[in-house]
Structures are given as C-alpha cells and as structure tokens.
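ARCHIVE CARD
CATEGORY: sequence design from structure
SOURCE FIELD: tokenized fold
FIELD CONTENT:
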C-alpha cells in the first residue's frame, strides 16, 4: 500500500498512531507499547497515512505490523501528540501523531516487525513514564487520570 507523506497547513508532518488496549481481569485497562526501530524507546505503533485506507485503518495496520495485534479500531481519533520525526535521510521534521483507540482481540505469535521491535503491556501510569516523547507522556498521564474518559 502506498504511503502518503502528509503535512498540515503549517508544514508539520502528520502520522497516525494506534493506542492498543485490553481490559484486565481486575477491570483496569492496559496498553501495549512497542519500541522504535532506531533507538529502542517505548512508543505507540504509528506511521504515515496510507493511500486507499482511512486514517483509522492505517493506524490498525501499523499496530498489526509493529505490535503483532488484531483488534477493532475506533473511527474517531481520541487525541494527538507532537514529536520530532527522524526521517530516512537523517533529517528531522516536527510532526503530529493522531491517535486511534484499538481494542486488542488477538496477539499474534508472528508479525512483520517482530525481529525489529519489542512489545510490552503497561498500565497507563507506567506507560506515561516509559515513553520517550514528552507530549505522548502527557497524553497518557491525562488518560490515566480520566481526562479524557475514553474507555
């Protein structure tokens, strides 16, 4: 599927991200983070929008490729965060990731990027402390405090 390098009206790169989550036996919710390929820092699965797919569908595909999960994705974004994207040519670009909620139904044993990334389940509070991007940490911290109430 062709990837689209999209920017907003201010020239900021725009990506789509998945927030994979599951309901635990005690009623709490956990989220699945993956490591980046470049620096092995914890993050949400994310990528560029894709031609022929809605942003929600592209976020779900990124979650499948990077985290090895299948699930149901919300059509409406639940938030966004800003970060600095390292491009393939070594340059950087201010970017924004629009986040889509993905309820995890299945964890795959084999997936496209299994040999390039790690995946791990976290509570929202621990995920907020583990992620590399400060704006994502703030989003997850707010989510852990019930702002916004998404689940």
């Amino acid at each position: 599927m062709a990837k689209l390098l999209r920017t907003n009206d201010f020239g900021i790169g725009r990506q789509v991200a998945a927030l994979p989550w599951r309901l635990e036996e005690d009623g709490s919710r956990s989220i699945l983070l993956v490591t980046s390929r470049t620096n092995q820092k914890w993050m949400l699965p994310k990528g560029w929008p894709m031609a022929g797919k809605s942003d929600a569908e592209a976020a779900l595909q990124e979650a499948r490729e990077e985290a090895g999960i299948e699930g149901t994705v919300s059509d409406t974004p639940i938030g966004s965060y800003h970060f600095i994207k390292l491009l393939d040519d070594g340059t950087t670009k201010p970017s924004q990731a629009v986040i889509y909620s993905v309820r995890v139904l299945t964890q795959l044993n084999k997936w496209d990027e299994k040999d390039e990334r790690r995946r791990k389940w976290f509570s929202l509070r621990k995920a907020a402390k583990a992620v590399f991007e400060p704006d994502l940490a703030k989003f997850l911290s707010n989510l852990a405090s019930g702002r916004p109430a998404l689940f």
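CARD ANNOTATION: The first strand starts at residue 6 and ends at 7. Helices lie at 55-67, 124-130, 134-144.
SHELF: design records, drawer C
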